[in-house]
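U., I forgot to send this yesterday:
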Amino acid sequence: MSSSFGATVLIILRSLIHVSTIIFWTLSLYKRVVNKQVRNLLVLVGSLMALWLLTKTAKWEFFPNNTTTLARYLWYGFYVPMVMIPFLGIIVTQFIDKPDSYRLPKWTYLFYIPAILLIGGVFTNDLHNFAFSFPKGIEYYDNNYSYGFLYWCAMAWYIVLGLTFVILLIKKNRLPNSKKMQFLPLFIMLGAIVFWLLYTFKVINVDLTVIDCLLIGSLLESSIQTGLIQTNTNYRELFEKTTVPVIIVDGYYQARYTSGGAKPVDETIMKDTENGTVVFNNTILSSAPIRAGRVVWQDDVTKLNKQREELDEIRETLSEESVLIRAETEIKEKQAQADEKNRLYDKIAREVKPQLAILNGLLDKIEKGENTKENLARVAVIGTYVKRRGNLLLLGNENGDVSVKEIENALRESLDNLKLLGIEVSLVANGNSNISIDNALKIYDLYQTVVEKTLDNLTAIFVRFTKTDKGLKLSLSLGVKEDFNQNVLENVSANGQLSVEVEDGDVYVDFVLGGNGK
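Result:
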């Protein structure tokens, strides 16, 4: 009696350990996974695994003779999680990198048909023996049976969907420098396939349910640890180390979380942001409500203010340009070098005259207090072009050529200033040789013309500048608002091969200069 009782206790204890492990792991998924839909699906997978273990325990431990009909249907019940878990894995991949409001495409619902047919086919096996056949009679099903085609269909479903799950996760991976680690789930899946083949052909004899749950858990956990499934762990440490100046406060404006790039701000100043932006010490302070508090962010406008001062000086200098030119003309024989510089300055001023006129208009609006932040950002965009174009012209005047790196730097600084207007930017450039100053200015002027004509509707811009043996190529991919009118680019002109296309709400501009960039 004592031996039987002790064995029963150990059996129950072992099952409790297995099931509780799955439950605690499932609870951790609920806390870690970011996407709501993915989180719910993974919790459902964990629940099916726990149900699988409980069904296994009921069949093998509470029906020791394994001859009853109930025990046989508990055995058939193993195939519910075996069919549904791979199916849920495919659904999980559809929600990766999608918002919580995303809805599944209609084609995914077609997977319900084979899933229902497989489960229904196994549970009705007593009628047709398509999944398992029993040569010595169904009453001896547990000791003498063979596999039917429906069983092999279920195994194919399990393996193919499992592999598809891993491949889709790897394909959707966006993490840099993770190519090696991301194949860990694939190795686990391949190991699971080998295990299944060995078990099916009776090379090994183990507790199939426990090993399957272990493999499924390892596959999902490895996907989480390698970043294929996103989690919200270490967010606090990341927030504290980021250089973005942000403070999260509670309802009493007590700082709860402060990023590494944020400056200390008085509570009364932060409270004033409820009524709008607050400017102090070259910083624009803004806030937005969140649950149980507000998020307060800082925009450093020191560079913008400095550029504004520089532009004021340029405007004052240009207003006196005629006087300076007359004075320099009188002494040009003694100051030939100064004359040459003045010639270049005059050329710069003439060629960027439209931009200077725009700057004057923006500065007038800023002085009147009209959309100060936005206009300061526009001043930065135009001012950078004026500065960088003048710099290219000065460099090219020395030997007629400029390096490709100089054009890349000009484009990069111009794109960085577009971020002030909330525009997403990206730049890809290559080439280390020199090109003529004329071609350099054509490239930069075309970029600026397209930006100025689309600035009011621009949401994102991707720039690709390359130099090959066949010539120079500038490609612009523009994300624009729905009300964008493509006719604004009809009059864009350039001395080269220029094409403008609009597709699916995006604008694509390609500009090619032939030859070796000379």
